[in-house]
Specification:
Blueprint: E1 2-6, E2 9-13, H1 21-28, E3 47-50, E4 53-56, E5 69-71, H2 84-91
Parallel strand pairs: 1-5
Antiparallel strand pairs: 1-2, 3-4, 3-5
Length: 92
Amino acid sequence: MITFTVNGRRREVDVESDMPLLWVLREVLDLTGTKYGCGIAECGACTVHVEGEPMRSCVLPVSAVAGKRVATIEGLARRGRLHPVKCRACAG
């Protein structure tokens, strides 16, 4: 079991420790705002913030975020309203 905080909510996942964080977010936690792009950390589509620092989740093993705070695009919404970054991302 790996425990970390996503968008202010403590989460515990039972996955392989080397599973990329991107797939844990999308497939296990159903947070699909973080996208798959290139798979080699070049394009930035999979970027999340870990302890406030941008990281490419497609190459980051979930074990690297154990006990840490992760923020995804879904975490930018406030009181049910989308953040301007999210609005622009969806419009394109």
